[in-house]
């Protein structure tokens, strides 16, 4: 926590948990995650994250489908350009 300049112990908890679950134990001759789930913690968490990303992508597609109906060839579409993206001399 000193490295990341935070005083909240909660932010470091996931790192500590992952470190503990990935460390090899001589008594059980494997990591705790492998003993419990049959897979390494990295494999388990990466599948969890991938599933979460897929769910979020589906939500975003559903929301954008409601906000922006499909365009047909020949339709006029107005695209707003934020001031941040304009050049100095642009109107």
Automatic annotation (TrEMBL):
Tell me where on the tree of life, at the top rank, the source sits: Eukaryota
What's the protein name?
A: Uncharacterized protein
Q: Which organism is it from?
A: Dryococelus australis
């Amino acid at each position: 926590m000193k490295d990341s300049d935070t005083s909240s112990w909660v932010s470091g908890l996931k790192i500590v948990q992952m470190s503990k679950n990935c460390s090899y134990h001589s008594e059980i001759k494997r990591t705790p995650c492998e003993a419990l789930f049959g897979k390494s913690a990295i494999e388990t968490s990466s599948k969890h994250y991938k599933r979460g990303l897929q769910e979020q992508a589906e939500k975003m597609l559903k929301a954008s489908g409601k906000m922006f109906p499909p365009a047909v060839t020949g339709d006029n579409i107005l695209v707003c350009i934020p001031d941040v993206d304009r050049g100095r001399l642009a109107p």
